[in-house]
């Protein structure tokens, strides 16, 4: 339980940080899609460690291999199995924390839940698992793109540096042109400086990723429990280090009055639009055709390069020393993960919408 | 798809605002639980309209009947079917909006999705559906209580009136002693005044509900996708009018450094605790035994007692006039709904945790 | 777990034999279907007790009420909730077996599983639950009929009276013209005589129901685990008293050689057909467009009008006396249940097939 | 959809006959199980081709690698990912049937469903996929064995050679001592001769596998739809070439009267037993603690070493020539597959049963 995501378009992952390999199985991708492996590779490059001075300097090549589900370059409708090898990891690196519970990691909770844990690099709880999500999401993205739907995420906050929430003011494509993935070059520079300063303090800091989805047809969402934003929220909250999710007007919308918040319907370009979009493109849990946008809060990474007091499995007080190469701020590398999970939700809900009306069957 | 919630402990609901009845089916409640119908009734009273001057003045009696799954006062392990009659509703009340799309409601999206919609009172998209959730959640709550787990929600924000986020400063039981359900009596008075003022403006306003879960055992959660907080987030986001969810340090935690944010493990009372609880009782998606707490943002209700411009099904510009009796602020009545959904998640995850370890089978 | 069937087109049932009511919730029926309540009523009449001298003489009116999901005569895409009242049942009738385990009933196993059981009439394990299936299946049938797919079941064996297995020799519509539901009038008479004789012996006897599905499009089925016939098999085996399922050539096909068994493809009427149909319309778990047919074995009903030795909950030897009005042979009334379950499978798989090809999305 | 089996203990497979590799992902195996890789290897040896003169002479080494979920020899509760390499397969072998529909194979139906198919060796529809099932089932078997539950299958029919249905007459362990896997040595010889004769005719023949499960605790099964035998039936019907399933008295039981068929409860060895076991160890869909037994019918393999008339994708009449090395009778190699699927069902239902009673939580 818990290793699969989606109903019709479905991703299952397996693998631990320091096991032999990670895996991603994508079920339900419609047959006949021309799959571009380079686009998968590109997404994995965006996530991989060591890509800049503000990410961990660990080297992971993230070479993947598609084992099934693709024939002569096209998807066949059968499950697409992908394996991502873990390059040679030195397990002895982790002997010093083998029986220690690192603060605000999952060491203690996995131990309580299972009575046993693979302590090497966090095992299954490591964010390394998200490599499999990005691989699977890259397939979802290609499927969506074939239907005109695009997804773009970017960094909108680092610590207390907050980008203007009106994303229409920015050219979102600029986000990929700097190492922090913020579409405002000036703000990007400030964010990079802040992360770098935190890194030198041997500390970490949190951030926010905003995601915008364009060209979603109206009608996607499965009320009452599987509302489109509820599934998006779950998808985001399932990513390591995420503490919050809001869409449309979000927590700020709380302060508004209904007369300000309501989005007026208008006819435009031969179809229904809304003048404002406080709804975030979703009304009653169903897409209305406007941009879908949401914000995802990431806490500061728990691994810091400092000594911390903690407990070991025997209940004794111990010192946990920060070692290795870790991210001072996770959001630049989280951007493709947010996009991947969003793509998986949209792909799934697009398929689900195909049986809503009798006339469509 | 979308009308059930949960894997082992599972709620399914059916019913429209102005249909004959609503229904709640609870599957997976362990056999042998003494079920107190009065406690279900109590929860439904907390949700029902017309309970105070700051809620809608609509009258709904919300009488329910248990049709199955209980024998001689105890649950039998078979599904518990509950029907909640809709008292005589005047459908003609809705003729004036039969073909109009009310702004920021689900009228347009349901129409796009299904090509047909029950326009009476919002049909399936009406918050009336949450009555079935409260009934189901009241059963989950009783199950959890038999295992020592308690859930308490309260109003922590109305408009820009924000309660101190440190809930330990308040006696949470006081929340039920005022009509806005805020545990700080002074703040409660201010919130009530604000809502009343907004009501007189024929407008609405948003709010936040905070929820605290105590005595959860360590080990609940199903990573990687079904993290405990991810499922709680989905549960909350599935409630009408919710725009955001955060747990533990939430969006504010973004601004912290890792060295501040990490929760130090200590031994206390013979078991592992943390000195702080920025984690919100969940680490790596699994409960650690500390209090679980989270915040849920509700937008201002879309129905306002004012004229608004909109479109009808033919794409023509029309005026939608606010009629009827609606809530100026939804959060006081949302408190039991938040608790119900939280109870459903916890009940489900408690059952799921029973097969984690070989020694437990 | 276990009270729902189907993925996209999904039936959930609740209710016990002697509880207040049964319920059926149908999710996923596409919106816009004109629903004929009389056709639901007709199916329930075919299942109901007391319809002839060879069925139980119990009276159950099986009045049902649709509570949701239908608006102005059409399905809206929201869940269709149906309640079937249990007419006034005398619970004291069952006091004599309250702590006894009836042989080959579910009394003992429910008690072991749940530690508590509603002993009145078998509680949840009673075949009365199938009334809810027939109601739900009647909706699936109407959906399928709108797409040209028809389902017809009939009795093909009672005890050792076995109808010729080549169903094409019979006018299947004749099955509804006699009380045993066998399409061969002469065989029907013999079957009726046999059942009547068994009834007079205060005993019961088994039988087989054959089901034929016509006009299924090619392409329905979800290999590898959810093959179309695997889901049909599960559906049938979930019906009370069923002991076996075979499709196409079935157990007899075991004796054949590959060269005899293989169905030759031919072009006919502008589409692909097979000369023979040992495959039963399903190849590799996917429909091929030919008739789907299968046989379902029902054991003799466990309730006999004789004294039997057994145990009570205390482990003491007791006598269980047959009382009440029970079916001497269950297959005549099982015909509409088999059809209902088949319709649910086909409806579900038809919806699932809508997202197989990229070109269809 | 369709590539996973099970709810809590869950197997997902991927891979095609001639793709790079097959995969099996096992979720939900309780943590702390000592996993013996040799036992997995042993099961795969029992299934692999080329093991005797009556099976295909193809060579497949079926080397597998466990990529995750096991740490220091024990399961950790995280998904166990297994990859089975496909050794170098000559794809050109299949050029001659690239656009032809082989009779009674899945070529036509996959083409209709997906509009594209991997024609090499049947692609996903090949029985090679069952190698992944056997690997996953071998883990389930070890879990069950740790709880005392054992599963043994054997060949009980080949063509019209039928073993006495009373399995208690045989020492079932003898089944593994001959190449046809029949526990009666004399019958085994006759079966081997028959298969050999059919092979020389360049033809194939069907058979039946019987499976016996011992030491199941009472209480396993999830009525009403997920009855234990319904899930076992689905599991078996999901295996390639299966045409029928019956448990306990099965189709023969149809001819019995209730007074003969009912199993009398008796107290023995301090617990409840039944004198006979026509119920096949399952009553009302729930295990009663007696032996569970069932029979599975396999059709004659569709690939025969003869020329057959058929169609190609263009609708033209073509000749399909039998080539390669195929099984003249599939049942000897199906024995471990039946056991694997049975083990998966039992493991899953054992876990599901852990939350039935309040006192167990």
UniProtKB/TrEMBL annotation, chains A, B, C, D:
Superkingdom of this protein's organism: Bacteria
Pathway noted in the entry: Metabolic intermediate biosynthesis; chorismate biosynthesis; chorismate from D-erythrose 4-phosphate and phosphoenolpyruvate: step 7/7
Cofactor: FMNH2
Biological process according to GO: amino acid biosynthetic process; aromatic amino acid family biosynthetic process; chorismate biosynthetic process
Positions bound to NADP(+): 47, 53
Binding site for FMN: 124-126, 240-241, 284, 299-303, 325
One Pfam family in the UniProt entry: Chorismate_synt
Gene3D superfamilies xrefs: Chorismate synthase AroC
Entry annotated with the keyword Membrane: no
Catalyzed reaction equations: 5-O-(1-carboxyvinyl)-3-phosphoshikimate = chorismate + phosphate
Cellular-component GO terms for this entry: cytosol
Alphabetically ordered keywords of this record: Amino-acid biosynthesis, Aromatic amino acid biosynthesis, FAD, Flavoprotein, FMN, Lyase, NADP
A GO term, aspect molecular function: FMN binding
EC numbers: 4.2.3.5
InterPro entries: Chorismate_synth, Chorismate_synth_AroC_sf, Chorismate_synthase_CS
Keyword Metal-binding attached: no
Co-factor note (free text): Reduced FMN (FMNH(2)).
Function (record text): This reaction introduces a second double bond into the aromatic ring system.
Subunit structure: Homotetramer.
Family of the protein in this entry: Belongs to the chorismate synthase family.
NCBIfam families on file: aroC, PRK05382.1
Identification of the protein by name: Chorismate synthase
Source organism: Algoriphagus boritolerans DSM 17298 = JCM 18970
Chain's gene name: aroC
């Amino acid at each position: 339980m818990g290793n699969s995501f989606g109903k019709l378009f479905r991703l299952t992952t397996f693998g631990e940080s320091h096991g032999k390999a990670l895996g991603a199985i994508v079920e339900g991708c419609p047959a006949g899609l021309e799959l571009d492996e380079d686009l998968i590779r590109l997404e994995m490059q965006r996530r991989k460690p060591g890509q800049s001075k503000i990410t961990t300097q660990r080297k992971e090549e993230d070479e993947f291999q598609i084992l099934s589900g693709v024939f002569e370059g096209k998807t066949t409708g059968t499950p697409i199995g992908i394996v991502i090898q873990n390059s040679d990891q030195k397990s002895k690196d982790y002997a010093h924390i083998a029986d220690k519970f690192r603060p605000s990691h999952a060491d203690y909770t996995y131990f309580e839940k299972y009575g046993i844990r693979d302590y090497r690099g966090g095992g299954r709880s490591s964010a390394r698992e998200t490599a499999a999500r990005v691989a699977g999401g890259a397939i979802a993205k290609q499927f969506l793109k074939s239907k005109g739907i695009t997804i773009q995420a970017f960094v909108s906050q680092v610590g207390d540096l907050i980008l203007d929430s009106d994303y229409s003011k920015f050219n979102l494509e600029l986000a990929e042109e700097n190492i922090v993935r913020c579409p405002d070059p000036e703000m990007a520079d400030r964010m990079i400086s802040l992360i770098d300063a935190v890194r030198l303090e041997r500390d970490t800091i949190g951030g926010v990723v905003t995601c915008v989805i364009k060209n979603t047809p109206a009608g996607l969402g499965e009320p009452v429990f599987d509302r489109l934003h509820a599934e998006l929220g779950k998808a985001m909250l399932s990513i390591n280090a995420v503490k919050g999710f809001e869409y449309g007007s979000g927590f700020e919308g709380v302060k508004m009055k209904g007369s300000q918040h309501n989005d007026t319907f208008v006819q435009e370009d031969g179809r229904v639009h809304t003048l404002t979009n406080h709804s975030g493109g979703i009304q009653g849990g169903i897409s209305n055709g406007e941009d879908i946008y949401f914000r995802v809060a990431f806490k500061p990474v728990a691994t810091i390069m400092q000594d911390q007091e903690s407990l070991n499995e025997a209940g004794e007080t111990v010192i946990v020393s920060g070692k290795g190469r870790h991210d001072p701020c996770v959001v630049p590398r989280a951007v493709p993960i947010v996009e991947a999970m969003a793509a998986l939700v949209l792909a799934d809900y697009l398929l689900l919408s195909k049986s809503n009306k009798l006339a469509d069957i």
